[in-house]
Amino acid sequence: MPHEEPLPFWLVNVPRDQWPAECPDFLKELGDKDRRIIGTPDSEYKKLTWDEVKHLIGIDRVDLFHRVPSELRRYRQFTHRLVKEYGSIMNFIVNERLQWKSMSPRGRAFECDEDIKILYNDWPYGIDDKIVHLVIWTKFELEDDPETGLSTPESHREIDAYVQKTFGSRLKPANFAWFKNWKSLKSVHAVEHFHVMLYDPDPVFMKEITNNDVPMTAKFP
């Protein structure tokens, strides 16, 4: 049997009749980690269960959340296009997703609803399909410890109180969890945000809380 060379990472998960002649521009500047993920067949990727998601949040290892390989490929293609069309991912988020005319908060942290917007994570991680991943965007800053990059105790309390108030009346405590990315993991640095994961929430509640939002992954071809 002749030895088969492994596929280049940029051809994995792509139907043979759609193979590009060379590595697409949106994949040329990737780091080793993303190359490794995109070069993994989707069939070999195991989605995280709700218990595994809660465990990673509980031990503050959110760096271990990854997208399904083919979804990471689509995400990289999408963000590459965004930078060309909008100048930066931040411009797209503020102008198209948040549609905020001003970034100045009206009140203190979590005081005014208009300083907060709840949207779906446009490109969620490889997690159980029953898990809904939301991003809570805020006009106000949520303080981080400059040494650790993690939320300060006061900021942690403020976020937790908001999450409990917003989601605690509609879901069991065991069915929701939140985290704030370390500074080094944030893909959008200029707009404050944190993440909430919900297990099998009521779709009507999701429409209500997100104002009928649709994530970009459902719109992007």
Automatic annotation (TrEMBL):
It comes from the Eukaryota. GO terms for cellular component: cytoplasm. It holds the Pfam family DUF3605. InterPro entries: DUF3605. GO terms for biological process: N-acetylglucosamine metabolic process. PANTHER family: N-ACETYLGLUCOSAMINE-INDUCED PROTEIN 1. This is N-acetylglucosamine-induced protein 1.
